[in-house]
Amino acid sequence: MVTLPDWCPAYSSRKKDVETGEEVFCICKKPDSGELMVGCDGCDDWFHFSCLKMAKKYNELVFSFYCPYCQAGITGPGAHNDGKLPKTLWRRKCRVLDCFKPIAENSKYCSEEHAVAFMRGLVDRVEIPGQDSSLVLRQMLQEPDFDHFKNLGRNGLPTPSADLAPGLLTNDGTLQDLEAQLRELRGGAKNGVETQIEQLTQYSQWVQTVNDLLFGDNTQENANGDSAPAGGKTSRTRKRKQTVKRKAICGYSSELKAPCSAEDFVAEFKQLDSESTELKGVCCKLRCVRHSDWLGTRQTSLQFQLESLQSSEQRLPLLIKIRQDQLKMQLYKHITKA
C-alpha cells in the first residue's frame, strides 16, 4: 500500500447521502450534478475531474483510469494482489502543442491536418542565410539525392574484433539493460497478457452460454442495426440509443473463471430467491450499474497492454542496434584521433 496524495481525503465506503438518501460519488462524496466525471476501472466509482486535480482538456486522453484509492491498494485489484498496484493509462497525445486529442492509429498526430501543420512549423523554423529554406529542403528530397541518402549506412558499422575492442558490446551497462528488457518481455510479460486475454475470452463465452440458457438469444441491436453483446458501460455523457434490450445477468466475477458448467449454474440460479444478486462469486444482477461494461473495459485494457508490449518488442531491437552503433562510432572516433 502506498500513501495517498495530500489533496485526497481518507477512503470512505459511504455510497448514499445520510440526509437525502441520494447516491454519492468521488472523493467528495457528493451526488452527480452533471459535472465531468471519469469511471474507475478498479472500484467502479465515479470521480470528478476537478476533485482529482485533472484538467478537463485531458478528457479524451484517459485510456484506463484508476482512482487514488485503487492506486494506493485500498480498493480495487491492488487490495488483493500484494505488490501489484494498478496505474492509470493514458493515450498518446497529438504532437501539436495545444492539441489534446489522442493520436490516430499508426501516427503521431490526431489528424492529417495536424501532421501537416506540425511539419510546416518545423520547416518555418529552419533558417538558411540568403536562401529560401523551404526550397532547399524540397531539393534535398528530390531524386537522385534522396535514394543516395537512404542508402547511407544501410549496412551499418562493422563490429570490431575482440582484440581491438575487448568487451565493447558485452560490458556496456546501457546495452545490457536493453537486452535484459527484451529477454524479459519475450520470456513472460507478453505471454502473460495473451494468457489473460484467452482466459477472458473463455469466461465471456461461458457467461454468454449462461444467458442464452436463461433468456434465449442474448443479443441486442443498436441504433445502426448491428448486433452487440448485452450489457455495456456507457459514459455518463454519451449514451448509445438501442432499439432492443434483452435480459442478461451481469456475469462479472473477480476470478474470471467459470465456477461450474453453464447448465449447473443455471439450475442453481433458478433456485435463488428474488433478493439474491450473486451466485458462486458471479454477479447475477439484470441491470448492474456497478459492473457495467466490465467485459469491454477489461478487453480494451488488455488489448492496449498487448499492443504496448508488441510495440516495445519492435522498438527494443532498434534501440539495441542504435546503442551498438554508438559504441562502435565512439571507438572509431577514438582510433581516428589517435
From TrEMBL:
<dbReference type="InterPro" id="IPR019787">
    <property type="entry name" value="Znf_PHD-finger"/>
</dbReference>
<dbReference type="GO" id="GO:0000781">
    <property type="term" value="C:chromosome, telomeric region"/>
</dbReference>
<keyword id="KW-0479">Metal-binding</keyword>
<dbReference type="GO" id="GO:0031509">
    <property type="term" value="P:subtelomeric heterochromatin formation"/>
</dbReference>
<dbReference type="GO" id="GO:0008270">
    <property type="term" value="F:zinc ion binding"/>
</dbReference>
<dbReference type="Pfam" id="PF00628">
    <property type="entry name" value="PHD"/>
</dbReference>
<dbReference type="GO" id="GO:0048188">
    <property type="term" value="C:Set1C/COMPASS complex"/>
</dbReference>
<dbReference type="GO" id="GO:0042800">
    <property type="term" value="F:histone H3K4 methyltransferase activity"/>
</dbReference>
<dbReference type="GO" id="GO:0045893">
    <property type="term" value="P:positive regulation of DNA-templated transcription"/>
</dbReference>
<dbReference type="GO" id="GO:1903341">
    <property type="term" value="P:regulation of meiotic DNA double-strand break formation"/>
</dbReference>
<dbReference type="InterPro" id="IPR001965">
    <property type="entry name" value="Znf_PHD"/>
</dbReference>
<dbReference type="GO" id="GO:0140002">
    <property type="term" value="F:histone H3K4me3 reader activity"/>
</dbReference>
<keyword id="KW-0539">Nucleus</keyword>
<dbReference type="InterPro" id="IPR019786">
    <property type="entry name" value="Zinc_finger_PHD-type_CS"/>
</dbReference>
<dbReference type="GO" id="GO:0003682">
    <property type="term" value="F:chromatin binding"/>
</dbReference>
<protein>
    <submittedName>
        <fullName>LALA0S01e03224g1_1</fullName>
    </submittedName>
</protein>
<feature type="domain" description="PHD-type">
    <location>
        <begin position="23"/>
        <end position="73"/>
    </location>
</feature>
<dbReference type="InterPro" id="IPR037869">
    <property type="entry name" value="Spp1/CFP1"/>
</dbReference>
<dbReference type="InterPro" id="IPR011011">
    <property type="entry name" value="Znf_FYVE_PHD"/>
</dbReference>
<dbReference type="InterPro" id="IPR013083">
    <property type="entry name" value="Znf_RING/FYVE/PHD"/>
</dbReference>
<keyword id="KW-0863">Zinc-finger</keyword>
<dbReference type="GO" id="GO:0005829">
    <property type="term" value="C:cytosol"/>
</dbReference>
<feature type="region of interest" description="Disordered">
    <location>
        <begin position="217"/>
        <end position="241"/>
    </location>
</feature>
<keyword id="KW-0862">Zinc</keyword>
